[in-house]
Amino acid sequence: MNNLSSLSTYDVLRQHGVDRRDFLRFCVTTAAAMGLEASMVPTVVAAMETKPRIPVIWLHGLECTCCSESFIRSSHPIAQDIILNMISLDYDDTLQAAAGFQVEAIRKKLIKDHPGGYLLAVEGNAPTKDGGVYCTVGGDTFLNVLKETAEHAKAIVAWGSCASNGCVQAAHPNPTGAMPVHKLITDKPIINVPGCPPIAEVMTGVLTYILIFDALPELDRIGRPKMFYGQRIHDKCYRRAFFDAGQFVESWDDDGARKGWCLYKMGCRGPTTYNSCSTFKWNNGVSFPIGSGHGCIGCSEAGFWDNGPFYQRLSNVVVPGIDATPNTIGEVLGAAAVIGVGSHLVSTVVRQNARKIHVDDTPPADSKGE
Amino acid sequence: MAKVIQPFDPKDVVAHPEAYFRRAYVWQVPVRLTHWVNALCVTVLFLTGLYIASPILAPSGEPAHHFVMGRIRQIHFAAGIIFVISFLVRIYWFWAGNNYARSGFPFVWRASWWRDLFRQATDYLKLERGHVHLGHNALGGSAYTFFVIFLGWVQIFTGLALYSETNPAGTLNKLFGWVIPLLGNSYRTHMIHHLVAWAFPIFALLHIYIVTYDSTQYGNGLITSIISGYKFYRQGDIRNDEWLS
Ligand code: HEM
Ligand code: HEM
Ligand code: SF4
Ligand code: SF4
User: Fold this and answer.
1) Is the Cβ atom of A276 under 6 angstroms away from ligand 4?
2) The domain that contains B156 carries what CATH number?
3) Domain count, chain B
4) Which positions in chain A touch B66 (Cβ < 8 Å)?
């Protein structure tokens, strides 16, 4: 297994019977997905041909394995081969054949053999409450496994919303104290690749970039690669013309729904979600939620589970403890203000009539000699 | 009781100064101008903002022929930018203007400010003709500072952050984009912007009621002061602004 790490991606692909034409096609697609210019394609090809693959330890914490599912279904025809071979996936307790003590021994050996040289890919996150007992791997808490493996990693890839922002297990009230990777590990370069799951092309794009340039791609404020999370779904959505026109679906079976109008009023989170779905789409570019008539639920955004109900434009999240939309809260406070002003006005009128006080009661001349 | 209009007698003024109203120039042009620009912008921002959240007009036909939502958003953004400019002009005038331009500031470290706050509140509750100010009273000043200045900043920061999302590589995003992760995410920023929006009509209701009340109760020409700049006072009233300096 270890000598595999020294082979290049191309070497491994050849061993698996992938021909050069398919290989080049993959390089072009990947370069395009990363937004690289055509002139960069030879660099991609050269890197794939010559650079030894990066050893990768892929940990699974509190999660549902949807990131792995997405990854192994990458849209390109020879994806299974390429993706799983592009990196030297030396430890992945879900995908590898070995099991039990043997597997944990491999992880420990990798850490020892490649200190500072392996990439740590984390799928899922670590519960921190009660010493981390809510997720254990091989007899140890995942919290410990994560820290131990992160210590000598070159960099960390946080796969999916779980690892990059917490996802469902960290949703209110977060009973297990689940925390995304960047809150637990602070001394390593971390790249967040959110999404539930992230798009396969995004995942391979990130890995390819690291492989080619031996560095993390440019990240935004919250550690996401700008090339894939630089824009909102809404900004590239093909239904955007309907949004600007003001043509909205009002119910799932109305005329607007049939005509493919904008799903904003059905709760679409496209305007507040950074992801590549409206560009790459899903499943080999077949479609994506909005393409199939369902709004985006914002699966790549921090705290998206707490921003429900998903089918409502305004959610009930603003003030903790008060389960109402901003409009309801505003209307109640507004009504209270109207009542307050109204009663002050009524008391003033009543009181003045009783007292017969008028401002004009005291014209200058009258007050002489007072 | 009918109003008696007296012929003006200068000797009488000297003899009984407390009986006469005097006129003082209080609100300089930038204060009045920014007041009305703000009032207009806030009204437009609130109405267009609510519309953005729950659009109701549904034009039929091809989308290429309509721009309803787009236009309402444009109006919101334009009003937002004008509001920001007017807001900054007013803040500049806080230093550049006369003492009254600074009178709304919450001088929480001065006992006299707290006394004025308490007295003004009880005057309103007791429905009595209270003391008259030339500048803002402490209660009014606190309301302007909290509702318009503080929440105004909240709306400006969240609004510009949301606005900057359309061009994440732009300068505006560099300046205001950090607001979004600070508040959690873009959706939450929308919700906070939306919730805080409600403070403005509530403020406007209280504000317009109170200035009308003051104007009629105190006879100090308060409402017209924000148009003409002049307020009226009687000898003695002016002492009430002492806490200012
Ligand atoms: C018909 C509507 C309005 C009238 C008649 C009115 C009248 C007035 C008056 C008379 C003052 C001076 C009060 C004083 O001496 O303390 C004032 C100040 C102020 N008003 Fe209004 N107002 C109106 C609408 C609004 C609205 C909608 C806003 C919301 C933004 C607003 C914000 C303010 C602020 C911030 C001040 C303090 C002025 C400063 O120091 O710059 N007003 N208004
Ligand atoms: C008193 C000031 C303001 C009020 C009352 C106000 C009100 C609102 C409301 C109610 C919304 C709808 C929020 C939602 O449900 O998504 C909104 C959206 C928005 N506002 Fe404001 N706003 C104010 C100031 C500003 C300013 C200064 C800007 C800066 C340009 C701004 C920019 C925006 C943007 C970009 C949106 C999102 C529009 C969209 O998603 O299509 N707002 N505003
Ligand atoms: S369907 Fe969603 S993402 Fe598309 S334009 Fe409408 S609100 Fe935006
Ligand atoms: S459209 Fe939205 S909810 Fe669906 S996968 Fe993309 S980001 Fe997630």
Assistant:
1) no
2) 1.20.950.20
3) 1
4) 245-247
B46 C-alpha vs ligand 2 centroid, how far in Å? Answer: 8
- Minimal Cα–Cα distance from B92 to chain A, Å? 31
pLDDT in tens, A96-143: 777 788 888 889 999 999 899 899 999 999 999 999 999 998 889 999
> A337, exposed or middle or buried, with CB in 10 Å at 0-12, 13-18, 19+?
middle
What is the Å distance from ligand 1's center to B35 Cα? 6
DSSP state of B170: S
Question: Among the atoms of ligand 3, which is closest to the Cα of residue A264?
Answer: 7
Q: ipTM value of the model?
A: 0.89
- Residue-wise pLDDT for A130-145, tens only, equals 999 999 988 899 999 9
Structural domain includes residue B175: yes
Full residue range of the structural domain in which residue B124 is found: 23-57+66-235
Angle at A116 between CA A111 and CA A120, to 5 degrees: 65
Q: Could you tell me the sign of the dihedral formed by the alpha carbons of A347, A350, A353, A354, in that order?
A: negative
The whole-angstrom distance between B47's CA and the closest CA on chain A is 13
Is B7 within a domain? no
Out of B69, B127, B178, whose CB is closest to A243? B69
Buried b (16+ CB within 10 A) or exposed e, B210-240: beebbbebbbbbbeebbeebebbbbeebeeb
| Burial degree of A97 (CB within 10 A; 0-12, 13-18, 19+) | exposed
